[in-house]
């Protein structure tokens, strides 16, 4: 069996317009499935409309993290659907999504992480990314 035949596509709905996924969600689904695709992995997928590379761990530049969250917020406010993806759809995309939603909804990060966990139980922000999310939210109050 070829490698592509075993590739698992992960896409989960967070709300009516917002989705989380792994790298294959934006490469193996038909073009036009999402109005915008924000990739926060090191390499953009072919259908990526916005790319903000982050690492899954320490060493992310504050400005890069803030730009990824700001882009997610802007795209989520628009009409249409948004997929935020990273390699596995577990850490980077979950953190960016939860931070964007917490800011937009003016609610605690824990609450929006629970929304992400309901849709994607394997989601688990890396502690370094979680720390950036807390700082991002504190800077907005």
Automatic annotation (TrEMBL):
Give the matching SMART domains.
DSPc
Gene3D superfamilies, per the entry = Protein tyrosine phosphatase superfamily
Please provide one cellular component term from the Gene Ontology annotations of this protein. Answer: cytoplasm
Q: Which SUPFAM superfamilies match?
A: (Phosphotyrosine protein) phosphatases II (SSF52799)
Q: Which Pfam families match?
A: DSPc
Q: Which PROSITE patterns does UniProt cross-reference here? A: TYR_PHOSPHATASE_2
Tyrosine specific protein phosphatases domain location: 63-131
One annotated GO molecular function: JUN kinase phosphatase activity
**Identification of the protein by name:** Dual specificity phosphatase, catalytic domain
